[in-house]
Amino acid sequence: MVSNDFRLLKEIKFHLDEILLLKRQIKEEESRITVIQKQIDGKEVQLEDLLAQQKEIHSVIASKEKELFALEKKLETSQSHSNMAHNQKEAEALEHEQSTLGKAVEELQENLLNLMDEEETASTDISKVNTFLEGSRQSLKEISEEVESKRNEYQNQIDDHDKEWKEHARALGDANKTIFKNGYNKFKESTPFAELNGQSCKRCGYGLDSTLHRAVLAQTALEICPGCNRIFLI
User: Fold this and answer.
1) What are the distances in angstroms from CA 232 to CA 199, 214, 219?
2) Distance CA 161, CA 182 (A)
3) What's the mean pLDDT in 95-108?
4) CATH pick for 2-172 out of 2.130.10.120, 3.40.980.10, 1.10.287.1490, 3.30.390.10
């Protein structure tokens, strides 16, 4: 009966190990989606920033254009008064005003050109990000379909292995079934089994004394690792 239980437990271990492997493969497939989604999220944040920047530049340009129009109008008015000066002092005052206004107009025009360059750069960057996002979203759609197909394939295999190990578990002797059930419930996300690495537990590194080591090798009864509480199988 004990030897049969060891055989069953080894079968159970095989199926549980396969399930863990398949679950890791599912996570690896899903990570492909995560990588692309993170890239998309980052570019969407960048796009929002660029659009806000473009909007701000456009607003500043509109304000500067109004300011330029007002300055040019003021300069034009001042120039029209040039021949109306009554004396040298008035003529010099008009000349100074026109010089000041002219410099302000030139400075504002240069400022506007720089802003327009910034706006064009922002538009180019926005176009590049939109192109990237379009391609990435298409890639995400295609990869998501591939991942879903793989996930279904692996899940079907998991279901098959799940059915197999549960059938073997039902055939265990009552005492060993209880031991296995306790271990399985505790280590659902890993494995309830441990192997030997020399005279130590391969899972947790616990060093076995000679008595326990011999008992594990004898396989006359299930032995539990005192370090991690897993079932020893060799």
Assistant:
1) 12, 12, 9
2) 20
3) 92
4) 1.10.287.1490
Find, among 191, 169, 166, 139, the residue nearest to 32 by Cα. 139
The set of long-range contacts for 121-129, using a CB threshold of 8 Å and a minimum separation of 24, is 122/50, 122/53, 122/54, 122/57, 123/54, 125/50, 126/47, 126/50, 126/51, 126/54, 129/43, 129/46, 129/47, 129/50
Read off the pLDDT of residues 121-154 as tens digits, 9 standing for 90 and up: 999 999 999 999 999 999 999 999 999 999 999 9
pLDDT at position 1 over 60: no
Q: Decide: helix, strand or coil at residue 194.
A: strand
pTM over 0.85, yes/no: no
Residues 6+ apart with CB under 8 A from 8: 168, 169, 171, 172
Q: Residue 173: which residues within 8 A CB-CB, separation 6 or more?
A: 1, 2, 5
Length of the chain: 234
The backbone region for 135, taken as left when phi is positive above 0, alpha when psi lies in -120 to 50, beta otherwise, is alpha
**Ranked by mean pLDDT, which of 2-6, 79-83, 153-157, 218-222 comes out on top?**
153-157
For residue 92, the model assigns a pLDDT of: 81
Q: How far is the C-alpha of 136 from the C-alpha of 122, rounded, in Å?
A: 21
